[in-house]
Amino acid sequence: MVAKRFYHCTVSEKLLYTCFLLLVGLGYLMATAYLFVTHVNNDGKPGLSITDVANSYYGNRSGTRLEAAIRGTMAGNISDDDRGIMVAWLKDGAEEEHFAHDIKPILDKTCLACHTKEAGMNLPDFSTYEGLHKYAEVDTGMSMASLLKLSHIHLFGISLLLFMIGFIFIQCEINVYFKRFLVVSPMFAVFVDVLSWFLTKWDSHYAMVVVAAGALLGFSMAAQMLISLYQIWFLKKPAEQA
Ligand code: HEC
User: Fold this and answer.
1) Which residue owns the Cα nearest ligand 1 atom 20?
2) Among 20, 38, 175, 200, which residue has the least CB neighbours within 10 Å?
């Protein structure tokens, strides 16, 4: 039996494949852009870096968001002495017993002008210990629950997508070993990618693997789609099979 090739397809099939591949391609670009805008500022420096990736899964365990804020964007609202007191409190474990005596007066001075519900600026409310405490915990990255949620959505969604792209792609005319590689590699990459999120939560060095798997996925998907799009419309039926 002669395997089915793109030149055996009806025009309706070709149109269906083409529209699907173009929409998925657009989706891929959107996903990349989304990744960029959501991860780019994790480490507070412009540009997407390995640290950005590590921070989102492992967290930035060198400090709390509160400390980052009073040293960074909120630095102008606090005196050096008060900052020292607050940082010492944070390093001490940010316990409630010292809150009322040491911390509340500092907050009252300036922070609460903006950081209460009444201020109406839709900012985190620091008028209570509970409100402040959320920002006084060490950032350990994405929670296990959101990691699991993201993983299963990714595994179900992307594998289905890759199945359909691969189903189209296997109708192309190309070296069979390269074809098999391109069919398996993105699936493998998704598996390694998801696995490496969990590894990165445990040890930030695995952020490298997240990036490498993402690159392999992107390469294989793009190759399958571009080869397919080209051959759907431009590959002629060989003369001897005509
Ligand atoms: C003039 C109003 C104003 C004052 C005063 C102010 N803040 Fe803010 N704060 C903001 C705004 C606006 C944001 C959100 C935008 C941003 O993160 O820069 C914010 C965000 C924050 C955040 C969240 C940062 C994050 O990780 O998302 C923290 C923590 C914070 N402020 C702490 C403080 C502390 C502590 C003080 C007092 C020393 C203070 N702020 C005083 C306006 C203010």
Assistant:
1) 123
2) 175
Exposed, middle or buried, 84 (CB in 10 Å: 0-12/13-18/19+)?
Answer: exposed
Is residue 193 within 8 A of residue 31, CB to CB? The reply is: no
Closest-CA residue to 53 (of 210, 219, 193, 212): 210
List the residue whose alpha carbon is closest to atom 19 of ligand 1: 123
And the tokens for 17? 């494949």
Quick one: which of 80, 78, 38 has its CA closest to 57? 38
pLDDT in tens, 206-233: 889 999 999 999 999 999 999 999 999 9
**Ligand 1: residue whose CA is nearest its atom 5:** 111
Probe residue for ligand 1, chosen from 73, 78, 79 as the CB with the greatest number of ligand atoms within 8 Å: 73
What pLDDT, on the 0 to 100 scale, is given for residue 44? 61
Instruction: Please name which of 110, 81, 86 lies closest in space to residue 99, comparing C-alpha atoms.
Output: 86
Amino acid at 220: S
Ligand 1: residues with CB < 6 A are: 65-66, 69-70, 73-74, 77-78, 110-111, 113-115, 123-124, 135
**Does 95 or 222 have the greater pLDDT score?**
222
